[in-house]
Amino acid sequence: MWDYIRDDFLSFFGALSLTGGLIGGTLYLIKRWINQLFSKNAAKYNAQLNSEIESLKHEYQKNYKDFDLYTSKKHEKYPELLKNIETALGGIMGLRGMVNRLNFKNVDAADIELYLTKLEFTNSDKNEILALWSTNKEVAIRKIEERKKYIDYYEAEQKWVDANNFFIFNQLFFSEEASIETRETLNVLFEYWNHLNPSFGIPERDERERMEELRNVLIPVRRDKLKLILKNELIKSFSK
């Protein structure tokens, strides 16, 4: 009986050992296969990850370059915008107040013709004024001053148009706050310019009050606020 148990146990143990060996071998093969698969996947993943990193680096460099170009353009456009606004403001505000006029006491017809040509008077106006110069200088001078008012008036308009066009053409470089304040500044300048039309004659009381408000309050306030906005935005962009 002992022999039977021993033989059966040994057979069982041998079968168990064989089965264990087979299982162990199978597990080893599975482990090796998993390691190889993992290595392949890891290599593939690393390659993909490196590719994505390079793509992100390229995109970052491109965006940084674009942002750097945008910032550079912003630094260029903001001072140019203010220059155009100040030029328009000077032209419009200069239509009223103390204006330097030519002293006609020590000039002759040749000087007057040169002066009118420089101011781009029409040939018709020049001929009329030169004809009057020899007969009635006072009337000729009044006509020069009248024509000069219209010339200055439309030159001021052109300066406003230049500032407005610059703002429109370069609006992509301006922040929303800067754009809003620029438009408001241009609007009050244009309104004031419109009130100064030489053909309107003496304004009524309400119009005079509005003109005073524009000249002494609204335009200076808008101008100062715009300058502050542009200055602060440039300072912020330099600090980034």
Short structural description:
With 240 residues, this protein is mainly alpha-helical.
Describe this structure in words.
The protein has 240 residues and is an all-alpha fold. The protein has a domain at 75-239. Helices cover 84% and strands 0% of the residues. The chain is built from six helices and no strands. It has helices spanning 2-93, 109-118, 123-133, 137-169, 176-195, 205-239. The radius of gyration is 43 Å and the shape is elongated. The protein starts with a helix and ends with a helix.
Keywords:
single chain; 240 residues; disordered N terminus
Can you give the helix content as a percent range? over 70%
- Radius of gyration using CA atoms only: 43 Å
Unreliable runs: 2-10, 60-67
SSE ordering: HHHHHH
Distance between the termini: 94 Å
Average of the residue pLDDT scores: 80
How much of the residues is beta strand, in percent?
Answer: under 5%
Question: SS-based structural class?
Answer: mainly alpha
How are the elements arranged and paired?
Elements: H1 2-93, H2 109-118, H3 123-133, H4 137-169, H5 176-195, H6 205-239
